[in-house]
Design goal:
47 residues, alpha+beta, two-stranded antiparallel ribbon, 1 helix, globular
Length: 47
């Protein structure tokens, strides 16, 4: 499938509080759905 998703570069599950700004545009990126689902909660790189 050629679908993409929005990936949280720093996994949302690592947030310590609701004040953590994990949804800032600088912390999001498009990623192919297959790759994003395989990545799960890991952090591969910043870019």
């Amino acid at each position: 499938m050629n679908q993409w998703q929005i990936d949280h570069i720093i996994p949302a599950s690592s947030a310590k509080s609701e004040d953590d700004a994990l949804n800032q545009l600088s912390k999001l990126r498009p990623m192919w759905a297959v790759d994003n689902n395989a990545k799960k909660n890991s952090r591969l790189s910043l870019l």
